[in-house]
Predict the 3D structure of the following.
Amino acid sequence: MNKITMWWVTVAFLCLGFSGGCGAVATKEVAPGAPMEASAARAPAAEASLDDLAMMTMDAAPTPSLAKNEAEGPEPLEATLSNSGDARLAQAVPAGAPKQPAATTEPADDPSEPPKPAPTASDAVAGPLLIYTANLNLGVFETTKSIDAVETAAREAGGYLVIRDEATITVRVPSARFDEVLKKAMALGDVLARNVEVRDVTDEYYDLQTRLRNQEAVLERLKELLERADTVEDALKVEAQLGRVAAEVEQIKGRLKLLRELVTFSTIIVRFQPTAVEDVGGKVTLPFPWLGTLGLGSLLRL
Amino acid sequence: MKLVRISILPVLLTLASACGRPFAPATPSGFVELDEPRSSTYDYRATTADGVVVSIRVVKHRPRGELVFWERAIENQLRDQGGYSLLDKRDVQNQNGTAGRQLRFGHDEAGDPHLYYVTIFATKKKLFIVEAGGTKEQVEASTAAIEEAIRHFRIKRCWKLGC
C-alpha cells in the first residue's frame, strides 16, 4: 500500500474514530495514569492493517493498570479536585476512602490532568459534585444596609461579589461556607421566599474528563504525524486537524474549569422585592377589596 | 299612648345618629385630625407635622372570620404582594378591652426605610383596622403616641337595627 495513503488513513482514523467514540467504552478503557500510547489499544482492528499505527502501538498492550481500571470504573475525582483546594470536592470521597498523599501535597498545574497515583478500588466510589444556588426574596426594608451586609458576609467567608444593584445582590462563596453565609443572609430580614437549587454535575464532569484524555491522545498522535510529514501539503493537512482537536481540548478544559469553579463556589442571590406570583405557584388573593388598599402609599397620601 | 310615641322618637333618632362613626378615636398628642372626604378609604386620619399618620377604617365583618384569619390575610397581602418585611407581631387591647393583633412592618419607600403598623380588632359585625406609618425615624419617635392612641381607641356600641 502506498505510504502516503496509509498515512492519511491513519490521520483519518485518529480524527474520526477517536474523537467520535469517547462514550462509555472509552471511559472504561482508558487508564487515568497510563501512558498516552495505551489509549491506542482501543482500535485493535486498525492495528493489523496500518503499519504506522502498529508501530506507534507496539507497547500498547493492555497493562495491569489498564485491566484494573476496566474493573474499577471511572477515575476518582478526589485527587484531581482536592488539588484545587476545594473542601467540598475533597469531601465527595467517603470518609473511609484512603487518601493519596502524593496527589494532595503537590498541586497540579492543570487540575484536569489525570492524577499521578494509580487509582485503588476504594477510590472508585466518589461522591457527587454538586452546584448549589440559593435564591432569597427578602422584604423591602433597609435594602442598602442589608445588601452591604450580604456583601460583607460573603467577603468574610472568602467569597466575592458578582453583581449588585439597588434591589439585588449576587455573591459567590466557598461551598464549604455556603450554609453559614445563607443563614446570615436570611437573618438580615423577613424571608418572603427561599429556593435552594442543587445540580449534580458528576456525570458531566467524568464525561468531559474522558473526552479530554481522548482528545489529548489524538493531539499527541497528530503531533507525531506532523513531525514525520514528508510534504508541505501533508503537514498543512495535519496542522488543520491539529487546530481542530486543540480547539476542542481547550473548550473541554474551559468547561471543566467552569464546573470546578461552580462546585467550589456556591451562588447566593438575594432580592429585595415582593415575591412574583409566578415564582411561588399562585398565591391566594382574597376577595376583600380593603386588603388591597392597605399600605403606606395610601396611608401617607394626605 | 301618643305621648309615649312622641317621647320615644327623639331617643331613637339620637341612637341612630350616634352610629355615624362606630368608634371614638383618641387623637394622640402631637397629631391633628384631618377631615376625610366621604369617598375616602379611611374613617379617620391624623398626622404629625413630620408626616407620621394614624388612621382608622371600618369594614363589614363579612364573611365572618376569627381574628387570626384576618391577621394572616393582612400578613400575606403585605408580605407577598407588597414586599413588606414583617418585623413583629403583638397582642393589643383597646379601651373597651377588645383584644386585637398588631403587625409591624418595614418597607423602603423611595430608598428610605419606613415603618408601618397595622392593628386589627374584630367585633361580630365590623372589623376595625388601625394603621400607623411614616419614616422609620419619625415612627420610632412617635411609637409611644401611637400605642397610646390604640389603647384609648374605643369601639362604640351601636343600637341601630342592622348596625
